[in-house]
Amino acid sequence: MITLLFLITVLTTAISCNPNLTGPYENPPGRRDYVWTVDTLSGLNCQRSRMWSSSPTDIWATSISNWGVSISHYNGFKWTYYGIPGIIQPNAIYGFSSNDIFLGDENGKIWKYNGKSWTLFTQIEGEGTAYFLFENIWGESLNDFYAVGSGPDEEGFFNVSCIAHCYNNHCIKLNTDSLKGDVVRLYKNKTDNKIYFRLTKIGGIAHIDSTIIYEYTNGQYKKLYSNIETKGLRSDISLINDEVYFILGNQITKRINNQFQPIFQVNNLSFYQRIWGRNSKDIFLLMTDGLAHYNGSTIEYLFIFSKSNETPWTQVYGAALFENDVFFLVDEPPTGLSLVYHGKLK
Question: 3-state DSSP call for residue 76?
């Protein structure tokens, strides 16, 4: 009996001292002790607007300008550049491994990379528009992903919405007749298993530029938020650790019980409504003058752009985040340079 009581006491103590057994794991505050280097990519005035990577030694970036360097790849040591015959203005890029990468171009075409070469995967034909330009690709697997973008309307503005769902090697365009605008980003939220997307309605005679967030459920589109496309008011979404984060002006929120629940507020007027992150306590924020970081309690700058006081503003258009390395795709309009900021934790 004494031996049995001793064993029970030991086991109880071990269980109570194990944080993994007493409750949910709390992420520690994200670190900020990065050492930064900057790579200048080939091509002047060749804005790279999309980035995807499988590892710190397999990073891709795309540009719709300068066909000869429209596809850029980093192998951990150097960048290489090229264009592929037939791929016109590549933009959207997303993959599921180094040998399963998809790319969308301006002709409604989706291309697939198998680790050696690019081949045409499918083409989404437009109805009432000349063509589609894909903005982004995202999915849960190579057999279940979405490609989003838009085509030109009667005024030449890209307001003919396009959402294509590719499932088991077959792609169909969803009915988007009730939408008007460029579908920029689309993600599924793990928490409620719903799909959310951000649309930019491009101005003309009838309206001004605006950003709109929708929920897509059972073939129906529900508008959740809308505001004009300007710093301080614009909206966006970001996928962080399989959860969709909503940037509504200067407020960062999540969608809980069909309501926007605030996570934190960005009071710095330089915030430019774009974020990336590893978890809720490790979030990077685009500012008009640099890159800032939220660690769960405070916001501090990580670096200041070398051209931070000129407009058009220097911007970060893509990011690749790993345990010890972060890469940010930076466009610097005052100089025409396309840069990659690489941060490595000490």
Answer: coil
Q: Say yes or no to pLDDT of 182 above 60.
A: yes
Classify the phi-psi angles of 200: left when phi > 0, otherwise alpha if psi is within -120 to 50, otherwise beta: beta
| Closest by Cα among 26, 28, 25 to 295 | 28
Q: Which two tokens stand for residue 184?
A: 């920029």
pLDDT level of residue 1 (50, 70, 90 thresholds): very low
Q: What are phi and psi of 305, to 5 degrees?
A: -65, 145
Q: Which residue has the tokens 């962080």?
A: 240
CA distances for 123 relative to 89, 117, 269, angstroms: 15, 18, 42
The number of beta carbons lying within 10 Å of the beta carbon of residue 144 is 12
- Per-residue confidence (pLDDT) for residue 207, from 0 to 100: 60
CA–CA gap between residue 328 and residue 179 (Å, rounded):
31
Q: What one-character-per-residue DSSP string does 82-107 give?
A: E--TT--S--EEEEEETTEEEEE-TT
Q: How far apart are CA 45 and CA 335, in angstroms?
A: 8
Q: Are 15 and 21 contacting, i.e. CB atoms less than 8 angstroms apart? A: yes
Q: Other C-beta atoms within 10 Å of 153: how many?
A: 16
Q: What is the pLDDT of residues 22-45, one digit of tens each?
A: 456 789 999 999 999 999 999 999
CB neighbour list of residue 177: distance below 8 Å, 6 or more residues apart: none
> Which residues fall within 8 angstroms of residue 284, CB to CB, at 6 or more apart?
275, 276, 277, 291, 292, 293, 294, 302, 319, 321, 326, 328
**Helices marked H in the chain — which ranges?**
2-17, 19-22
First vs last C-alpha separation in the chain: 53
In the structure, what pLDDT confidence band is assigned to residue 209 with cuts at 50, 70 and 90? confident
pTM of the model: 0.91
Dihedral Cα 96, 99, 100, 105, nearest 10 deg: 120
